[in-house]
């Protein structure tokens, strides 16, 4: 059951994020290598951005250390992180 005393949007540090991101996404076993600095770097200088039908924004950035593309999904405000994962299918 969600903690109703905790807001839906959590403030920095490290960045604005949804409760879902903080409590579910970043704890998934396939995401252990995604660090906050990587998410921040993608948000600051995305190689590509795309709006989803629901208003969320996809940001892609290349993470040289992992030799992979990281997709960061934000809420429509473009600063609240909702999801982040290594995107196997992204082609610049």
For the structure shown, list the relevant keywords:
92 residues; alpha+beta; four-stranded antiparallel beta sheet
Structure explained in plain terms:
With 92 residues, the chain is of the alpha+beta class. The chain has one domain. The chain contains two helices and six strands; from the N terminus they run E-E-H-H-E-E-E-E. The protein has helices spanning 19-23, 36-44; strands at 9-10, 17-18, 48-51, 57-63, 68-74, 81-86. The strands form two sheets. Strands 3-4-5-6 form a four-stranded antiparallel β-sheet. A two-stranded antiparallel ribbon has the order 1-2. The radius of gyration is 13 Å and the shape is globular.
How confident is the prediction overall: mean pLDDT? Answer: 93
In sequence order, what are the helices and strands, one letter per element?
Answer: EEHHEEEE
Number of helices: 2
What does the overall shape look like?
globular
The largest sheet is: 4 strands, antiparallel
> Residue ranges: pLDDT <50 for 5 or more in a row?
none
Cα separation of the termini? 40 Å
The proportion of residues forming helix, as a percent range, comes to 10-25%
Blueprint of the fold:
Layout: E1 9-10, E2 17-18, H1 19-23, H2 36-44, E3 48-51, E4 57-63, E5 68-74, E6 81-86
Antiparallel strand pairs: 1-2, 3-4, 4-5, 5-6
Gist of the model:
The chain is of the alpha+beta class. It contains two helices and six strands, in the order ββααββββ.
């Amino acid at each position: 059951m969600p903690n109703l005393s905790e807001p839906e949007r959590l403030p920095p540090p490290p960045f604005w994020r949804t409760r879902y991101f903080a409590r579910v996404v970043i704890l998934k076993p396939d995401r252990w290598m995604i660090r906050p600095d990587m998410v921040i770097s993608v948000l600051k200088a995305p190689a590509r951005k795309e709006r989803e039908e629901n208003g969320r924004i996809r940001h892609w950035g290349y993470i040289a250390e992992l030799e992979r593309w990281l997709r960061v999904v934000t809420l429509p405000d473009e600063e609240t992180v909702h999801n982040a994962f290594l995107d196997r299918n992204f082609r610049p």
